[in-house]
Specification:
Order of helices and strands: HHHEEEEEEEEE
Oligomer: single chain
Distance between the termini: 46 Å
Structural class: alpha+beta
């Protein structure tokens, strides 16, 4: 039994490494070190349980924090995850059509750009200071004191505020011509409008 499990995991890892390698080539990421490919494959294996199962992600502590951000997706945060671990992303990014949700990217955020890149080749984006509400709506705001107890646009309850953040995406669940570390993905444009 143990040998069968080891062989199965070995085959799964090999297939995942090949898939991630193809994403990197398709995503115009031309100089990714083999150890980075291995880490991306580990991230994909660790998050496979969430690939098409948003309810599982919610059961594991992920909560919606944004509406659909064009060419990116809906963001779901697990506030218990605070350190960088490629196998435990604090944010899962999804797109959906009808009732079907698809994980497309993983994301990490910091108050300032890390002194050392979390993975060689990392590219960063940004997200301005904002008040977040329980339905995923958010309002840009430079201070928590300016956050209303409810969203002025939807009426949802206040959840949290954050200062301006540096973002880091890994597109391992949806090909991205901007690269595996791109901030936005033009291939998710069809999901921008429901």
């Amino acid at each position: 039994m143990r040998k069968t499990v080891s062989i199965t995991l070995g085959v799964l890892l090999a297939v995942t490494l090949a898939y991630v390698g193809n994403l990197l080539v398709a995503g115009a990421q031309t100089t990714v070190a083999p150890d980075v490919v291995t880490k991306l494959a580990m991230a994909r294996l660790a998050t496979a349980k969430y690939a098409t199962d948003l309810e599982r992600a919610k059961a594991d502590g992920y909560t919606i924090i944004t509406p659909m951000i064009p060419n990116m997706g809906y963001h779901f945060l697990n506030p218990k995850i605070t350190a960088f671990d490629v196998t435990k992303p604090p944010i899962l990014v999804y797109v959906h059509r009808g009732d079907a949700w698809q994980l497309v990217a993983l994301e990490w955020v910091w108050p300032k750009k890390p002194a050392v890149a979390p993975l060689p080749g990392a590219r960063y984006g940004s997200f301005g200071a904002a008040c977040h509400y329980t339905d995923g709506s958010f309002i840009p705001s430079e201070s928590q004191a300016a956050c209303g107890k409810t969203s002025p646009t939807t009426g949802a309850d206040f959840m949290f505020w954050h200062p301006s953040l540096v973002t880091f995406h890994i597109w391992i669940w949806y090909p991205n011509p901007s690269g595996v570390f791109g901030e936005f993905n033009p291939l998710v444009t069809p999901f921008n409008v429901e």
